[in-house]
Amino acid sequence: MPLNSEVPVLAERIRSAISAPAAQAPVTASLGVTTIDLQPHKRRRTTAEDRLAAAIRQADQAMFRSKHKGGNAVTHANSTSLAGTGM
Hints:
- The protein is mainly alpha-helical.
- It has 2 helices and 2 strands, in the order αβαβ.
- The chain has helices spanning 7-18, 48-68; strands at residues 31-33, 74-76.
- Helix 2 (48-68) links the parallel strand 1 (31-33) and strand 2 (74-76).
């Protein structure tokens, strides 16, 4: 499993591979990613399922931010867009 700091980099590699020049028609990808810790929280009374559901919502919102910025981008839920940066 990738470390939290590697998730946006991995997503950018996927976006770049999808967006590579194609013979027939151009294809791009707008990705939203987030990272979570599924370990029990001592102070919070949320379940792993609750945290997973929240993470999915965050990633979905990040994907729509990628689309809103013009598409063909990766947006981490906790950072700014990495649109076509090639990292």
